[in-house]
């Protein structure tokens, strides 16, 4: 009996298996990246978007924004949304560029309160404003 086809078949299965593991690792990495982005998007407050707009709007963007706000038609609502979203995305991009926090959850050692993702927990309640 010729064993070469068996060896080829087994080798091919091993390669498939390795390829699957690589795909799985890539999937997990992109899933983690997606989750991180979603957490960042969910953490952005209205005041932060408004600050971003106030600080970085160009004259042309401000004119477009105010004209749209003053007219208030359906197209204008879309323009307002696009402008606001643009500044929210700028915040998201900036936060994504920051290194990911070391721990997915941190805690207060004194009361045990969960404080969200971070590089370290805190020792005392006064550090988290309690
Ligand atoms: Zn505490």
TrEMBL record:
Annotated InterPro entries: Znf_C2H2_type (IPR013087)
The C2H2-type domain, residue ranges: 108-128
Name under which the protein is recorded: C2H2-type domain-containing protein
Species of origin: Paraburkholderia saeva
Lineage: Bacteria, Pseudomonadati, Pseudomonadota, Betaproteobacteria, Burkholderiales
